[in-house]
Amino acid sequence: MATATLRTPYVRRRRVGAIAFRAATYLALLLVLLPAAWVLLGVVARAVPHWKWSVLWTTSSNSGGGLLNAILGSIVIMIGVLIVAGTIGVLAGIHLSEMATISKRSGKQRGNVMRTATEVLSGFPSIVLGYVGYVALVVGLHWGFSLGAALVILSMMVIPYIAKSTEGALRQVPTNYREGAEALGMSRAYALRKIVLRSGLPGIVTGLIFAVAIAGGETAPLLYTAGWTNQNPSLKLLHQPIAYLTYPVWTYYQQANNGLHYLAYDAALLLIVLILILLVGSRFVVARTQKYSEGKVG
Question: Counting Cβ atoms within 10 Å, is residue 247 exposed (0-12), middle (13-18) or buried (19+)?
Fold first, then answer.
C-alpha cells in the first residue's frame, strides 16, 4: 500500500504531462493550419467570382488573355526539375547513406564534406541564387532568359532537400535487410537496387514531390532566369524565355487593370490546385510503394 501511495503522485504527473504535451501538439497544428486555410480561402474567395474557364486554353497577352502558356511553362519547369534535381539529389542521398562509410584510419565519416555543403546550399535565399543565375548564366554565359538557366538554379535550390530526404529514408531501412542480402550472396549493388531502395521508396518519392512543389512555387529565381513570354513553351533550353504561374501572381496584381488583377487571382488558384495535385499524387505513390516498407519486403 505504501508503494502504491508513493507512486500515485508520480503517475498523476505523468498523465498531466502527457495531456499537456498532446494539447501543445494540437495547438501547434492549429497554428500551422489556420494561416494556410486563411490564405487558401482568401485566394478562392477572390478568384471564383470572376473565374473564366477560357483562361485554361487561352495564352496571355499584354492586355490580359489567359494562362495557358503559364500553366504549360510551370509544368515543363517542374518536370525538368524532377529529372535534373531528382537524379542528382537521389544519387547524392544514396552516396551519403550507403557509400560514405566510416574511414578506418581517421574514424570519421567520409560524407561530412558533402553533407555540410548541402546544408550550406539549402540555407541560401532563393533570390540570391536567382541573382547568381542571372549574372553567371543569363549574362555571363550568354544563355539569356531561358528554361536551361531556370532549371539549373531551381535544381540547385532543391537538390539539398532531395539528398536529405533520400539519405533519411535509406537510413531508416533496417540493417538486417542489408545483412540478410549479404548472407544470401547478393552483391552490394544488387541488394541496394532490389532491397534497400525499394524499402526506402516511400520517403524518396515524398522528398521528390515536395521538392518539385517548392520549385513550382518559386518566383524570385525565375524572374532572374526564366524571364517571361506570352508564347507557349517550345522546350528550347537556351535563348528562349518561358512563362510560369508565379509571374502573373507577382506582376499582374500590381497593375491598375482589374482584368489583370483577376488573372493574378486565377493564377494563384491554379498554382494552389497544381500543388495540391502534387501532394495528393505523392500520397498515392507512397501508398502504392508502401508494400516494400518494413515487414513487407519479399
Answer: buried
